Amino acid sequence: MKTRLLTSHSGSLVGTVAIPGDKSISHRSVMFGSISQGITKVTNFLLGDDCLSTISCFRKLGVKIEEHASGELRIYGSGFQGLNEPKEVLNVGNSGTTIRLMMGILAGRDFFSVLEGDESIARRPMTRVATPLSKMGAKIDFRNGGFAPISVRGGALNSFEYKLPVASAQVKSALLFAGLQAKGETVITEPEATRDHTERMIRQFGGTVEKEGNNIKVRGGQNLQGTSVRVPGDISSAAFFLVAGAISEGSSITLENVGLNPTRSGIVDVLNEMGADLQILSQDLDAAEPAGTLLIRSSRLKGTTVGGEMIPRLIDEIPIIALLATQADGVTVIKDAGELKVKETNRIDTVVGELKKMGANIEATDDGMIIQGPTALQGACVSSHGDHRIGMMLAVASLISEGETILENPEAISVSYPKFFEDLDNLKKIK
Ligand code: S3P
């Protein structure tokens, strides 16, 4: 097993980070490029392991995808009809977004395909996508209990009205991809608003999708056209630096080109609520995906409560918010976040277990965690458990911990942020 030695950093963190491309938007750019007509050019695409899995799956479906030396990705789409039966199994690696959204795309194709992934994927629930897709007419089979590997025999789909039992952008997006191939209009109702990158991209590629309250309506048979996509930086990656800057004394970190889609920016609200010194230096709200430059400086922090409809807006940031809370005065309660149990790891268990090893005062609850701060953390032997966001959270924790930290499985971080340690180390150089 690989390990990485992490040393504490008593100095401040100062400098600028160009945040790498958004993972959710990068996946979708390949998917929409592949199902549209013509060439799609993507800049600032995230070349992390998860998005590379998406590229590999679409290549196996016969789509030509070029990675140019300039960093631009070029996708030569021929519409949904241009996808061909794959000769091999489609391996999604660690990527839940790839497997779930692909199910929606494959559901409408008149061929047979098999999706598989790593050990973590094999533990994640898939019936939440398979059940509604079967109602639309797809034939989907899976291992006992609804787990990958999954087989999809797609074909003609009927539209339907469906109320999502869980707030999940992955399920919503899979149904939107299926709805684009179905006869008639599909109506999806969300219990709470989730990230809307798929809806924005349907429009960017020339299609229509309507939102009325919690209902999202899409018509089948639309002609989507290839276009240019500029992927903003991932706010979920920026979050690790926002927290590192907020909790490391004397820090001042500028984060450039951070996606600020309101369905994703819950971390900004939580930092403000906790008293962080966070400024938005500039922003472009009119772009297909809003983005801006953020400046974070260290400050005194206070505990807060995070729950309700805020949860989908920051679901992936909860591990790093838990660390933030260990440094805030008072109690922080994270609730209504039972979905954490079915992420890359059970993030209630992994966050609480690993932060406890470092001396945090943190307890698991059924739908979240309770953290009492502030606590001085100590270096320890900790593990990412193969979960990129747990790995990055622990690396940030090690900065403010006394003594050395050994991180097991640090390579998991390349799923969403291959240059993470390089970018973090650059901020330490300036004293
Ligand atoms: C994602 C949706 C969220 C999120 C995941 C990416 C997406 O998952 O946690 O990292 O790109 O649609 P759920 O849809 O399961 O909530």
Describe this structure in words.
By secondary structure, the protein is an alpha/beta fold. The protein has two domains: 3-21 and 232-426, UDP-n-acetylglucosamine1-carboxyvinyl-transferase, Chain (Alpha-beta prism), CATH 3.65.10; 23-217, Alpha-beta prism (UDP-n-acetylglucosamine1-carboxyvinyl-transferase, Chain), CATH 3.65.10.10. It is 29% helix and 26% strand. The chain has twelve helices and 23 strands. The protein has helices spanning 23-35, 49-60, 96-106, 127-135, 169-179, 197-204, 235-247, 266-273, 318-326, 347-357, 388-399, 420-429; strands spanning 3-6, 14-18, 37-43, 64-67, 73-78, 90-91, 112-116, 139-143, 147-153, 161-163, 185-189, 209-212, 215-219, 228-230, 252-259, 277-284, 291-297, 305-306, 330-334, 361-365, 368-373, 381-383, 405-408. Helix 4 runs parallel beside helix 5. The protein is globular, with a radius of gyration of 21 Å. Shikimate-3-phosphate binds at residues 24, 97, 168-170, 173, 195, 315-316, 339.
Task: Summarize this structure as a short list of keywords or feature phrases.
431 residues, alpha/beta, UDP-n-acetylglucosamine1-carboxyvinyl-transferase, Chain, 2 domains, four-stranded mixed β-sheet, 12 helices, 23 strands, binds shikimate-3-phosphate
Radius of gyration: 21 Å
Average pLDDT rating: 97
- CATH C-level label of the largest domain: Alpha Beta
What CATH architecture of the largest domain do you see?
Alpha-beta prism
In total, how many domains does the architecture comprise? 2
The oligomerization state is single chain
CATH topological fold name of the largest domain: UDP-n-acetylglucosamine1-carboxyvinyl-transferase, Chain
Count of DSSP-assigned helices = 12
Bound molecules: shikimate-3-phosphate
Task: State which percent range the strand residues make up.
Answer: 25-35%
Structural class of the helix and strand makeup? alpha/beta
Shape: globular
| Tally of strands | 23
Quote the distance from N terminus to C terminus. 34 Å
CATH superfamily of the largest domain: Enolpyruvate transferase domain
- The amount of helix comes to 25-40%
Tell me about the biggest sheet?
4 strands, mixed
Pick out the low-confidence regions: none
Strand sequence of the main sheet, in spatial order? 2-15-17-16
